[in-house]
Amino acid sequence: MTGRRRPVQARSREMVDRILEAATRVLATRGYAGMSTNRVATEAGVSVGSLYRYFGDKDEIIAELRTRCTADVMADLTEAMSRAVSLPTRDAVHRVLTTLVGSLQRHRALMTALVDEVPLGAQGNVLPEVERQLAHFTRMFVATHAPHLEPAEADARIYLAMGVALSTCLRIALDPPPGISEDHLVDLTADLLGLGLVLGG
Amino acid sequence: MTGRRRPVQARSREMVDRILEAATRVLATRGYAGMSTNRVATEAGVSVGSLYRYFGDKDEIIAELRTRCTADVMADLTEAMSRAVSLPTRDAVHRVLTTLVGSLQRHRALMTALVDEVPLGAQGNVLPEVERQLAHFTRMFVATHAPHLEPAEADARIYLAMGVALSTCLRIALDPPPGISEDHLVDLTADLLGLGLVLGG
DNA sequence: CGATAAAGTGAGCAAATGCTCATGTTCTAC
DNA sequence: GTAGAACATGAGCATTTGCTCACTTTATCG
After folding, report:
1. Least C-beta-crowded within 10 Å: which of A41, A53, A148, B124?
2. pLDDT tens figures, B62-87
3. Where in this chain does the record put each HTH tetR-type domain (chains A, B) (predicted)?
């Protein structure tokens, strides 16, 4: 292990970007197993040695991809949430979900690979930070619109809602059914979440 | 490729079973990448050559595991459904979901590996047949309890419901949250599905 | 310039993997 | 018993993978 170095010159920062782009492409076309460091390096027009100067490990490349992707989605999400607070609840939920779907769609290649190719190890979630952020939003939402719920009950419903929201948005974004409008699906999901959370039981 | 043969003697049928058991174990402990044919063979107390007599390919082992697992879940599910038709709708949904969760839990090791380790290729679903069966059940349910829905609208809701049901049951079965009763989660999910499907919009 | 550090190269190694095949063993049927 | 089929073995091959390292090139700065 030569140890990962940080790129300081512009030249090397560009190279890191080229490597990450190539990795995304290879991941999308050949899958995780087919994404060898040699292949990524070749595809990026870079030598393996250079790759290993900035990434100590094959999985570090993917970790970096995930980090950047998460940051992007989070940015979209927090912006949507800050705008949503002033809207009627149904519209708020709808806006957040729409934003999430769009954000996931813009990272389709990577997300697809992450969802069904990359080993996640122990944790079963592709976007833990996104889920946390969503949960935070939902918690506020529940506190103001269903204050009668006991904390334990609220937790259970939020847990469920997070699973539904994330899995549904992922499905709509990455594997949309033919002949059904995405917007309508988001609409239905928003209803489902609102009704299930606030009413129900 | 020597071509896969079918075991005809009892001896070889036992061996196939031993291989599949070993594969499940290895898959659970080392993951898909760590599941080499050599390791599976050793773990099963069998030679690699024998393994390749009955499985033409590493992935054929997994395909067989999936087939057997699916058959098992399907058996549970169809039985639960046939009993559920005579129940009030809420109880029916609850029973089916409970059965599904239990069935997935009994196959925890394999399911976990399938969900976040095994490359699924194009299709993003772990249990396509189960989803089809569930959709069939739901379609009947919708036809009798919400006949006012247009076909297209019904399709959209069934599509959503399948995603919610499967992903939620998988989550409850494989990654249950601490401190929340599984039964209560199933309860909430049943409400969610019932309300979202029949009312909503 | 000249010196030092950063950036970049690519042949190639050690280990692992999927899989074969020549050989040996056990079962079945006549 | 014995012929022939089914069954079982495991050394080992071809390929791939992740990764190193001795080396060259380029930038930075006094």
Report:
1. A148
2. 999 999 999 999 999 999 999 998 99
3. 13-73
